[in-house]
Automatic annotation (TrEMBL):
GO MF annotation terms: methyltransferase activity
Protein name: Uncharacterized conserved protein
Keywords: Methyltransferase, Transferase
Domain Histidine-specific methyltransferase SAM-dependent: 16-314
Coiled-coil boundaries: none
GO terms classed as biological process: methylation
Alphabetized InterPro entries for the sequence: EgtD (IPR035094), EgtD_Methyltrsf_superfamily (IPR051128), MeTrfase_dom (IPR019257), MeTrfase_EgtD-like (IPR017804), SAM-dependent_MTases_sf (IPR029063)
PANTHER family named among the record's database cross-references: ERGOTHIONEINE BIOSYNTHESIS PROTEIN 1
Any Pfam family matching the protein: Methyltransf_33
Length: 315
């Protein structure tokens, strides 16, 4: 059993810089990866268990049912997963493809370590390589003897591409194409559907989605010595038909001033801080997006309600 971890996590100074530029935008916004500290990753895993959030269960079932066909279509190689989280999805691919090496990228060191340790116990013949990084900005995998001359198969499930704007998503897909060096990419995307159902999925009755968003403020308090009072912000998730996306935000309950590392930021009552978008793509939109990034979609697997698809992209 072998696990190796490489730490390329953005430095605290990068987070400070992101906050400064994101808070100057109108509306204020931060990149989604900032939500995933150790606690954020645990809360996200809980979101995936909520009855309203069916995306994870649907995708796991789709992978389990189609893994032999997917394995045949993608061929042999090293699996590279962008954003492993709690590793609930890759098992069917590891079983069907049986790679010699599995590379997992994730922004959370804790999630990466825990997930790879669990997988290594189940798959002792597979070398596990974890890279802690903002995978969306990676241009190349770090040099490593296990990656020399190998064919890479990218795996980007969970509709995580939806957490970028379409323009950013094209840039992410271009970087992945370069990083995979000619190998295919298996991309999971959620589709637009009933807004009431979607809004419920992003605002579960147990309040986990709200806690996940508010954890961002706790993180900024801890890591940047900010003085946010998380209870002075309410959580909002709403479907924006025009953009085919759920917009998630923390909305200031009152007029208030926040100090972050000697800078002062005023929030008016009702002012949002956008924590995330979740863009939903139908198959035609997905094909256009892929094409703009230099990929073509070769095959698509979907659930019986056609609410979620796994697309096989080839360069
Ligand atoms: C990780 N990502 C695909 C989730 C989504 O569905 O957009 C993030 C999320 N945030 C709140 N609920 C789920």
């Amino acid at each position: 059993m072998s696990i190796e971890l490489i730490d390329l996590h953005p430095a605290p100074a990068d987070l400070k810089q992101l906050v400064q530029s994101g808070f100057k935008c109108q509306p204020r916004q931060l990149p989604a990866w900032v939500l995933y500290d150790a606690k954020g990753s645990r809360l996200f895993a809980q979101i995936c268990e909520q009855p309203e959030y069916g995306l994870t269960r649907t995708e796991i079932k789709l992978l389990e049912e189609n893994s032999p066909a997917i394995a045949k279509a993608v061929g042999d190689g090293v699996i590279v997963e962008f954003g492993i989280g709690n590793a609930r999805k890759v098992s069917s691919l590891l079983n069907a493809i049986r790679p010699s090496t599995f590379v997992a990228l994730d922004i959370s060191q804790a999630a990466l370590r825990d997930s790879l340790t669990r997988l290594a116990n189940t798959y002792p013949m597979v070398s596990m390589l974890g890279i802690c990084c903002d995978h969306s900005s990676m241009q190349a995998l770090p040099p490593h003897p296990r990656l020399e001359g190998v064919r890479c198969i990218g795996f980007f499930p969970g509709s995580s591409l939806g957490n970028f704007t379409p323009k950013e998503a094209v840039a992410v897909l271009r970087r992945f194409r370069k990083l995979l060096g000619g190998g295919p990419l298996l991309l999971g995307l959620d589709q637009p559907r009933d807004p009431t159902q979607l809004e419920a999925a992003y605002n579960d009755a147990a309040g986990i989605s709200a806690a996940f968003a508010r954890n961002l403020l706790h993180r900024l308090n801890r890591e940047l010595e900010a003085d946010f009072r998380p209870d002075h912000f309410s959580y909002r998730a709403r479907w924006q038909e025009e953009f085919h996306r759920i917009e998630m935000a923390l909305v200031s309950r009152c007029s208030q001033t926040i100090v972050i590392d000697n800078s002062t930021w005023s929030f008016s009552a009702g002012e949002p801080l956008i924590t995330e978008y979740s863009v939903k793509y139908n198959p035609q939109e997905a094909a256009r997006l892929a094409e703009k990034a230099g990929w073509r979609i070769n095959q698509r697997w979907h659930d019986s309600a056609d609410s979620l698809s796994l697309h096989l992209l080839e360069p």
